[in-house]
Automatic annotation (TrEMBL):
First and last residue of the signal peptide: 1-22
Protein known as: Alpha-lytic protease
Positions of the Peptidase S1A alpha-lytic prodomain domain: 132-186
Family designation: Belongs to the peptidase S1 family.
Gene: alpha-LP
Alphabetic keyword roster: Disulfide bond, Hydrolase, Protease, Serine protease, Signal, Zymogen
An example molecular function term from Gene Ontology annotations: peptidase activity
Length: 394
């Protein structure tokens, strides 16, 4: 462990000498090695690191060429998504990345003008007709958010592919009277579909177990992304004013802001010789990944997660703006993925290609049997606290 950590420190120093600004997080950095881009990638495409590509191969069953091409396609879809939403206007009914076709699909209501459909197709997206607008489904979800949910209801979100609000119910609790009452009231709000899930979500903090990477009292969590002046992480890992120590036991800094439940985000200011670098750690499993921005990946995109317990794992974005009903209370605006996580991974990084997506909140299952994991979008955290993501611009 110590030898690997010393290597990270040396690499961080080399990166700083190479032009990265030093401002304060964990003493670790990336090698900067990247895989070559696929033949279908546009000329402006910057390939992801070898670590992201190999993790996608392992977890998504892709070849190296398929993984690289998918990253390029997802980058194009992420850039296109906000543009087509503006074009669609009131007729917008959601969008998602279609991994089979390698492009963005946009749902429009039946009253969408022909020229709007043509413009969206011309921009490079598929078009599908859906009964309910995104505005209506968001309003239905907002009404469900105002209900008090029993523990047998694990969460709810807008599903753009199914064009409905999906309420997830834990299988063993589906006959519970409180669950049935909640589902009945949710259906009164509008188009709602009930889905059965295997287990209730939980947060992924853990007691101190030696090793990685930061500690608050007797709790171990994972660093999310470096920002200028500190790093962002999960809110359930610490309250404002709580001190933070690093992997070596030395003092890092202090929680400056934290919210949980309702939200699950926080930021920690750093100092005492610690500095920030725009990387996501591979934890010795894969090379580290440089962070170049925070463009939002659409539903259907691949996403990889790094955490101090289970290290690198990849999956797919399953839903956005989901309300998750933890035992501590509901948390809103989370993104659901099929990537696994385990205790101690809380606060860790979710990244698509080289674009930061969010910090690990919680989930169910583990990295042996599988499961689902949620993250708090990083752009929401940056906006809430007025932070600037530390990115690599080389």
């Amino acid at each position: 462990m110590r030898r690997r950590r010393l290597t990270h420190v040396a690499l961080a120093a080399l990166l700083a000498l190479g032009g990265l600004s030093a401002a304060g997080t964990i003493p670790a950095a990336a090698t900067g090695s990247t895989a070559g881009s696929a033949g279908t990638a546009p000329s402006a495409y910057r390939p992801a690191s070898y670590g992201v590509v190999t993790a996608m191969q392992r977890d998504l069953g892709l070849t190296r060429q398929q993984a690289e091409a998918r990253i390029a396609d997802e980058r194009a879809a992420a850039a296109l998504a906000p543009k087509v939403r503006r074009t669609a206007g009131k007729a917008y009914a959601g969008s998602w990345f279609d991994s089979e076709k390698g492009r963005l699909t946009v749902a429009l209501t039946p009253d969408a003008p022909a020229d709007t459909r043509s413009a969206i197709r011309a921009a490079g997206a598929e078009v599908r007709t859906a009964a309910h607008s995104a505005r209506r489904l968001d309003a239905v979800k907002a009404r469900v958010d105002r209900l008090s949910a029993p523990t047998g209801v694990s969460g709810w979100h807008v599903d753009p592919v199914a064009n409905t609000v999906v309420v997830d119910v834990v299988r063993k609790d589906r006959s519970d009277n409180d669950v049935r009452r909640f589902v009945s009231r949710a259906r009164e709000a509008g188009p709602v579909t009930v889905r059965t899930v295997s287990a209730a979500p939980r947060t992924f903090a853990a007691g101190t177990v030696g090793g990685d990477p930061y500690y608050t009292g007797n709790v171990r969590c994972s660093i999310g992304f470096s920002v200028h002046g500190g790093f962002v992480t999960a809110g359930h890992c610490g309250r404002p004013g709580a001190g933070v120590s690093g992997w070596d036991g030395s003092y890092i800094g202090t929680f400056q802001g934290s919210s949980f439940p309702d939200n699950d985000y926080a930021w920690v200011s750093v100092g005492s010789g610690w500095w920030t670098v725009p990387v996501v750690l591979g934890w010795g499993t894969v090379p580290d990944q440089l962070v170049r921005g925070s463009a939002v990946a659409p539903v259907g995109s691949s996403v990889c997660r790094s955490g101090s317990t289970s290290h690198w794992h990849c999956g797919t974005v399953l839903a956005t703006n989901e309300t998750v009903n933890y035992s501590q209370g509901a948390v809103h605006q989370l993104t659901k993925t099929s990537a696994c996580a385990e205790p101690g991974d809380s606060g860790g990084s979710f990244i698509t290609g080289d674009q930061a997506q969010g910090v690990t909140s919680g989930g169910w299952g583990n990295c042996t049997s599988g499961g689902e994991t949620w993250f708090q979008p990083v752009n929401e955290i940056l906006g809430r606290y007025g932070l600037t993501l530390h990115t690599y611009t080389g």
